[in-house]
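REQUEST
  id: r-88c1
  op: predict_structure
  target: Alpha-ketoacid dehydrogenase subunit beta
  payload:
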Amino acid sequence: MAVQKLPLAKALNESLRKALETDPKVVVMGLDVGKLGGVFRITDGLQKDFGEDRVVDTPLAESGIVGTAIGLALRGYRPVVEIQFDGFVFPAYDQIVTQLAKMRARSLGTVKMPVVIRIPYGGGIGAVEHHSESPESLFAHVAGLKVVTPANSSDAYWMLQQAIQSDDPVIFFEPKRRYWDKGEVDTEAIPGELHKARVAREGTDLTLAAYGPMVKTCLEAAAAASEEGKSVEVLDLRSISPLDFDTIQASVEKTGRLVVVHEAPVFFGSGAEIAARITERCFYHLEAPVLRVGGYHAPYPPARLEEEYLPGLDRVLDAVDRSLAF
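RESPONSE
  id: r-88c1
  status: 200
  body:
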């Protein structure tokens, strides 16, 4: 059966299974990805079915994991690396930024780096310190890396397939608070472009642009706004680097207003680049300044306070009202 209703986590599992079946050069590796199946069970059952040489339990050493993946890519493999939690990626940041991102340019394009680094990211699960970060803008700022994030099960399945098939390194951010949200997945569909945004809900008065975990929140905000007679368009950006500015521009030229929403802190976040670029492109179409909604410029708080930190329905609707008031 081609169409199934799957939790986002299961869609990722099925995608990895398909990649392992299709290409013998695909290798999955990371902390506890084998026997345990990953802390979120994304790799559940894969080591049993494909063996310890294809699904590799690694030591607790993120720099070593990514460095090994770079070596495997140089030998023609397509490693898929799991970083167990977002805040654990920083020991590997040096390898990612100084080696993985630069290798293709350093070799004038002769060396390919088909490495996928999967990172569960964001808050909303009541975790402890270093388990709820949103570091996507740090990687989007680095030339040579592609940075993508799905918001639903279908994109989780297909975007991971496309990331694994890419000859460039891809940082694949997985919205962990949405792992258990179910959605339809057509495993025989022809996927759209990896770096193309999609219109998740059409509207005429204002555009909400989001990605990953905040797409669902923005759809809820658009539904709430419609009860007050406001027509809000919601864009699922899907790709953070490169960004599909053309789709954002087309939407803003229609609505005249833009609010960008992400969990990461607003200060120097990806929303700042979107706001600057759309202001340049759409200056004469804008009826209000581009507004941003996101986390605060502060360390991620203890779990009991994270609902105050994370942008929720009320903060998104407040920005909608402020924009429409201009």
